[in-house]
Amino acid sequence: MPDRPLTPLIPRWHLRITNFGLGYILMTLLVAIAATNTANNGLYTILAGLLAGMIVSGVVSRRNLRAVRCTVEQNGEAFAGRPAWIAVTVRNASPALTAQGIWFLHEALPAPLYVAPLPPGAERRYALEAVFPRRGVFAGGDAGLMSRFPVGLFRKYRSASWPQPVVVYPDPARGARRHDSGDSSGAASSSRRRGFGAEVRTLREFVSGDDVRDLHWKQSARLGKWIVRERQDERSRRIVFEVENAVADPLDPAAVAAVERAIAATAGEALALLEAGGEAGLAARGISVPPAGGAGQRRRILEALARIEIHPAASAPAFPPPRPGESRREVAA
């Protein structure tokens, strides 16, 4: 969800006076003062009418939204900073009253959505495009209904309900490959590099240093030169990505931004490896995802990255220990 504005869309008390309503109240006070000072019956009659109008407006405004229910659900995947779909259901549970003049507000929407009048028992469902500026898992948000019905003296609000938390994935940053954190040789560790795995990457001409066990005898005899099999490095296809999510000061915007960049870069690297048929895992302070492949692992990796919390370095939990033979890589932002 976006950073909270100074004034929330849905106030805590669910009631606000509009500018028109404030002017109405000030006018009522002026009439009351004049009626008191002059004892004019005509002014008292006007005052009574103004007060009655204010009371009726407040009661009708309250009854207009009292039976209306609003739920917001995530509809598909949501990535930070990208358009995503949410499903909004508005239902009028009143058996007799039509709900009118209602607007739906959501902090991730560019503008309010007008809800057409809802007859008793009616329900409407909307699919809306929203943009969530940052990753995370959110059990609720600044969203709900607002109405100025009947005459605009008051704004009455009702918060929306969220049956399931909204999971916003980090926006994957695709970048250059990094070195494996556990590779002391310093060789480049792309997801497709020479190695000693079972999968043959390509055939090429023999060069000094190649293993003679990789000679392809039939191709060598046919071409009249030594040809070897270049194999896929199994280790480069099974990587656990590390994210350092402990900082000296969690309130330091620069430190937090650096962690968020690292999370986005890790998402890009992990998705690229999974798309290439490899296996990816995740290790961070307080989070561990064993390496695996497939669409299910993609969802697990993205959700784990969305759930990563930034801890103070002094009290941060330890990294999960590496498993035997596990290759780890920390992706720099």
Enumerate the spans where pLDDT stays under 50 for 5 or more consecutive residues. 1-6, 176-197
Helix content: 25-40%
Radius of gyration: 31 Å
Largest sheet: 5 strands, antiparallel
CATH class of the largest domain: Mainly Beta
Distance between the termini: 22 Å
- Beta content comes to 25-35%
How are the secondary structure elements laid out?
Elements (H helix, E strand, L loop, with lengths): L14 E3 L1 H20 L2 H26 L1 E8 L2 E2 L3 E10 L9 E5 L6 E3 L7 E9 L4 E3 L4 E5 L6 E6 L6 E4 L24 E12 L11 H7 L3 E6 L5 E6 L2 E2 L5 H23 L3 E6 L2 E6 L2 H13 L3 E2 L14 E4 L3
Parallel strand pairs: 3-11, 14-16, 14-19, 15-18
Antiparallel strand pairs: 1-10, 2-4, 4-7, 5-6, 5-9, 8-11, 9-10, 12-13, 16-17
